[in-house]
Recover the amino acids of this structure.
């Protein structure tokens, strides 16, 4: 652990990102290309994400299960679009117990196929529906260019897989879970995502309709942060998931799937972080409050540490820790915990004790402006209020940033400029050709067609033909 | 879901075991040989195990992380005993992204090697020690003969991996975690395990000393239900995990590892279950209380369902559910929830409502003996008491069963009889030859040398030479 400065965001955002992750000990590179080790501090964020998402899944009637990681290769080939989308990315087990396998097994890149196979076995009648199952799992996709959290060979996620009686119910479920993701992102992670529908070219391989939540990172690039797919009857037909309906007729189910991964930790880092390091939203931060004792003499040390311990125990309902490492200066500790993004720092020195107060320093507002003295009598209440305020402020700042970097260009020329400095929200005819032209000219892709549409010119910004909907064009991770 | 009788334990214990798992929907066979799907009801047991174990790990200072599942094959070959123990069981990824890999990757059978590699990178000084990390993960071992939960190709577990300054600290940690397992097994799962040390031939591949918890199943066979390993400096030397000690000298760390897996669900099933199906200990049961409404007419139905809903909401602090399925009779429901092992059933009929009471039926005591009427005024308290009583009774019954099936044979002839009807606790000289002779003659193996030793003859029951310790001989899963 060192106390050197990290690269500034404005100098090299990508380098800033890597340094923050390594220095804050969120993750490390593994000895296998493209794989990561999620270190305890990073995993604690994921555990907090899991807790709050899992509660939302259970509230909406879902249960957890565990399906095998190894899938017969032939399963991947049953759904036409799915095989095209995933075959180039597969890790394949060809040897087991010292012998070459008759049929190779793929390490799951996603589990529609094996879960589809089991659903076909379990579902007989409309009485068995809906089936609403989620799993927390690791998956492997053989990516060429990898980045910690954003794109790694192995990553961690949850994948929900549901089966329904009707097309309407499946669409309802798809949107319900999209909204669960948005609610989580906005209210727990303070990441103000936009919900929308993906274009055909950005659809999940095998889906009828894909929806996503999209966040704007501090370099203005978009990050797809969670997806929800209406799979129609595609997988039900490929895997014979059939049921006797209320008229005693055999029908194919309507299925959905939806996932959110450790990539979301990348979204948190790049939405809130600054040149000092991470800034974690209080609701997901592994540590919400760090207490730093400040003393000069041994006499002071004893007195201050005793008081600091009292403060720590009074704050036990928060995720709170006293940093009593003797070998480091307060200044070193300030930098260290700022790098790690702890939302609130509490300083206690001899003067504070005399004044029956402590000093609180907000991570979201640097320097003196973020500091305030708290009367020791009001400690718990004030700390709770400050954490709430920080949570809200992070959401507000990120929302303002996105708003001020989202443009509605009046012409294609303006669009080309807009995607260099933010997002462009523009009417679009819906054609793959226009989408491809923007990509070629600017590297920006369609991120999503926001569910909430504003009024617009009615003409495609690229080709001028009639346009029903507006889409977000942006450079994306 | 059917309501047919399952095979009796006395007829075919193994068949009983499989039927209970499939019919109670704990797990199902996957399309890949030897793999299982853990269904929602089974996974809910695992989630309860995870919660209570994870809390114990955190109380003892451990943190969670996630290490990659794919390990370079060469890593497996660095520790001599480890490679011998695990090579025959490896699943190997040879193709990634459509190309043959330069170095094959193994799917982790356990993670000492890759974690050792990372620890070597992270640990520099005694100040970095101890490192106390756990991970909840899936692992793959290419087993030939598989059984749901007990031995599957892929299984779920936690694996703790720690690094220490001294041999003493490592031994202390190894025993601490063994005791955490025993405490969990006894007080949460009501599985009265014995803690002990493994013989050399049963040691973990690469360990200096292996300890285990061993439970007696209802067929009197032993099930190793969790292990804790003192790895000495074996892995530290193989992976160069070194630190500068307090005298500024370079030393190898002392490491440990310990694991408990979904196999433990098998222990719960086979410790408590009966001919009606599962019996789940209240502290781990996904459902603690099932409420069954009983009515004949539509009038009664309305009245009873209204009361049943009130009871359900009053019992919301328990894991409780009202079974209001209209298409099934109460009798069907009784059998169904008995099969699934719900510890307490509450029946509500018109007469109970008139009497201001409900009928409670304990799963652990069949028939009338387990039934009692509870005054509605005392509902929450009585239900809580009954669940506590059931939990204790399960532990007592299992402890009595083990005690009455544990023999202290006076001769080798008696030992051979003893292991056919239970466990034999006998003094043993410690030689691999005597161990092998017992195995050849009886199929029984040494399970563990109990930490708590009783006085004994001082002579090996097999060869008659001096014996310091007693060991448990038993047929094992």
């Amino acid at each position: 652990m060192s106390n050197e400065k990290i690269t500034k965001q404005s100098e090299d955002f990508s380098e800033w990102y890597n340094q923050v992750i390594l220095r804050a000990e969120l993750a490390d590179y593994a000895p296998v290309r493209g794989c990561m080790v999620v270190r305890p501090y990073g995993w604690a964020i994921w555990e907090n994400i899991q807790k709050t998402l899992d509660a939302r899944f259970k509230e909406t009637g879902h249960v957890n299960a565990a399906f095998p990681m190894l899938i017969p290769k032939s399963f991947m080939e049953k759904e036409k679009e799915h095989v095209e989308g995933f075959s180039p990315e597969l890790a394949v087990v060809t040897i087991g117990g010292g012998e070459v396998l008759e049929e190779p097994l793929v390490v799951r890149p996603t589990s529609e196929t094996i879960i589809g196979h089991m659903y076909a076995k379990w579902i007989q009648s409309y009485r068995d529906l809906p089936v609403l199952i989620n799993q927390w799992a690791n998956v492997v996709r053989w990516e060429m260019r990898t980045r910690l959290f954003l794109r790694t060979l192995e990553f961690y996620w949850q994948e929900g897989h549901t089966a329904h009686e009707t097309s309407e119910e499946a669409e309802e479920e798809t949107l319900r879970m999209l909204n669960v993701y948005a609610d989580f992102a906005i209210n727990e992670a303070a990441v103000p995502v936009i919900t929308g529908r993906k274009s055909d070219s950005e659809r999940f391989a095998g889906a009828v309709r894909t929806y996503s939540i999209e966040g704007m990172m501090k370099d203005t690039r978009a990050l797809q942060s969670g997806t929800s797919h209406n799979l129609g009857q595609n997988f039900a037909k490929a895997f014979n998931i059939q049921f006797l309906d209320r008229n005693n007729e055999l029908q194919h189910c309507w299925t959905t799937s939806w996932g959110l991964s450790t990539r979301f930790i990348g979204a948190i880092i790049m939405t809130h972080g600054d040149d000092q390091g991470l800034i974690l939203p209080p609701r997901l931060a592994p540590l919400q409050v760090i207490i730093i004792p400040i003393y000069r003499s041994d006499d002071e040390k004893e007195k201050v540490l005793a008081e600091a311990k009292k403060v720590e125990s009074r704050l036990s309902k928060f995720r709170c820790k006293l940093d009593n490492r003797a070998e480091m200066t307060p200044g070193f500790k300030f930098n260290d915990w700022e790098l790690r993004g702890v939302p609130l720092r509490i300083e206690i020195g001899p003067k504070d004790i005399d004044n029956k107060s402590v000093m609180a320093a907000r991570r979201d507002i640097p320097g003196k402006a973020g500091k305030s003295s708290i009367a020791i009598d009001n400690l718990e209440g004030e700390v709770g209020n400050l954490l709430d305020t920080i949570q809200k402020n992070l959401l507000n700042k990120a929302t303002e940033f996105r708003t001020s970097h989202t443009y509605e260009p009046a012409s294609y020329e303006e669009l080309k400029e807009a995607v260099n400095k933010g997002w462009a929200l523009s009417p679009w005819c819906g054609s793959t050709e226009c989408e491809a032209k923007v990509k070629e000219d600017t590297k920006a892709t369609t991120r999503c067609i926001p569910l909430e549409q504003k009024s617009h010119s009615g003409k495609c910004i690229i080709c001028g033909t009639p346009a029903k909907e507006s889409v977000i064009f942006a450079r994306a991770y």
